[in-house]
Design brief:
Blueprint lengths: L1 E7 L2 H12 L3 E11 L8 E10 L6 H4 L29 H24 L9 H12 L4 H17 L6 H16 L12 E5 L6 H15 L4 E5 L5 H14 L3 E3 L3 H10 L5 E5 L8 H10 L6 E8 L4 H11 L6 E5 L8 H10 L3 E5 L8 E3 L2 H9 L6
Parallel strand pairs: 4-7, 4-8, 5-6, 5-7, 8-9, 9-10
Antiparallel strand pairs: 1-3, 2-3, 10-11
Helix pairs in contact: 4-6, 5-6, 6-13, 7-8
Length: 388
């Protein structure tokens, strides 16, 4: 039996090294989270240390006896509930050897599954965690997050000596998800003078802009104005003019960068200027270039990229990539009331390290908008938590 130690940023990467070095028949004997590098104890990097072995069925008993098998305590995704650790081999009885070989065969199956799927299936998640884990699957939580969460679940489960119950498991997963997005400043109210909303057509940018403007004008008594560059749709201009009339605030329509600069100059004395943009086919890169030619994003501006929660995850990814050349400060998600799956809230903010400012829940202005918080996001995904 050939035994080697590997260090990698995550289990899939470790397994790539193992498969390349030892081949597809290698098994995992032990794995644990370690921290490497850093400076005076700070900025340490989280890695996973894996002990792997190559064992052939043709190995003679005398050769196996040279290996002092440890307890196979798998504190990450590679251990499963019904695979109980064994004591170190002492008497080398046939029963103990058979048990070790069975564990090796089972571990090989798990390795194949993780290699092909990226994470363990629901059947291999310890039973106290399965109900809430299944919710995350139903919410279309990304593979990246599920992979990290699976590692954390196994570490937590065995640190509790396999005594975790469903309440403990629920609290642990909620707290883990909170930690993933904790560094992001969710729900920050607009701090800069100019607030622009960008995004594809049909996501509700104009209505959302009016809702945020109403909060500033009515609740916070700020002096506001509107600018619209959405000159491609007459209805859009008229819609924003209607909101401006209701709020009794001025509005300027801009067709080019010179119009925009003149409007900015005109509204110098205002607290906030809300900028609506055209919603066109997000797959057309020319649209993004047109935005750059019409709006000066280098102004004292805060930019919100607006997504619809009813869109497909792959479309949301494409939308972000298309708009990523523009400065994006926050996300806004609309149409929460039209879907039961909210995984995108967590997926995109986690992947792109961008906070969510608002979530809209309907068409009513100034209602049907909520300020996003960490609790709000997690509650929408797993149900009400006790973190409020």
């Amino acid at each position: 039996m050939k035994v080697k130690k590997y260090i990698a940023p995550n289990m899939p990467e470790a397994m790539k090294k193992i498969r390349k070095d030892l081949g597809k028949d290698a098994v995992i004997l032990n794995s644990k989270i370690i921290y490497t590098g850093g400076f005076f104890g700070l900025f340490r990097k989280k890695n996973i240390e894996v002990i792997a072995a190559l064992d052939n069925d043709t190995v003679q008993p005398s050769q196996k006896e040279k290996i002092d098998f440890p307890r196979m305590e798998m504190n990450t995704e590679m251990k499963r509930k019904d695979l109980q650790p064994t004591e170190p081999v002492q008497n080398k009885t046939g029963e103990n050897k058979e048990m070790i070989l069975k564990e090796i065969r089972d571990l090989k199956q798990l390795i194949k599954q993780v290699s092909s799927q990226g994470h363990l299936s629901i059947e291999h998640i310890p039973s106290p965690y399965r109900e809430i884990y299944r919710k995350l699957l139903n919410q279309n939580i990304s593979e990246t997050i599920l992979q990290q969460l699976t590692e954390d679940i196994y570490g937590h489960y065995y640190s509790k000596k396999e005594q975790a119950d469903e309440n403990t498991a629920y609290d642990f997963i909620v707290q883990s998800l909170m930690e993933y997005i904790k560094p992001l400043e969710f729900g920050e109210a607009p701090q800069k003078k100019y607030i622009a909303v960008i995004g594809p057509t049909g996501v509700g940018k104009t209505t959302t802009l009016a809702k945020i403007a109403s909060i500033k004008a009515i609740e916070q008594k700020k002096k506001i104005a509107f600018i619209t560059t959405d000159t491609y749709r007459i209805a859009a201009v008229e819609q924003l003019k209607t909101y401006a009339k209701i709020l009794n605030v001025p509005i300027e329509v801009c067709y080019n960068i010179n119009d925009f600069k003149q409007a900015v100059e005109k509204f110098t004395a205002f607290d906030h200027v809300f900028i609506d943009t055209a919603g066109r086919n997000f797959r057309n890169k020319k649209y993004i270039e047109d935005l750059k030619k019409t709006i000066d994003f280098h102004t004292d501006m805060e930019t919100y990229l607006v997504f619809s929660l009813t869109a497909k995850e792959e479309d949301l990814e494409t939308i972000y990539q298309q708009f990523s050349n523009l400065p994006i400060d926050n996300f806004i998600f609309t149409k929460l009331d039209e879907t039961s799956r909210c995984g995108s809230l967590l997926n995109l903010s986690y992947k792109y390290h961008t906070p969510i400012a608002y979530i809209t829940t309907g068409q009513d202005v100034p209602d049907d908008i909520i300020v996003a918080t960490h609790d709000t996001i997690i509650n929408q995904i797993v149900g009400e938590t006790n973190n409020d």
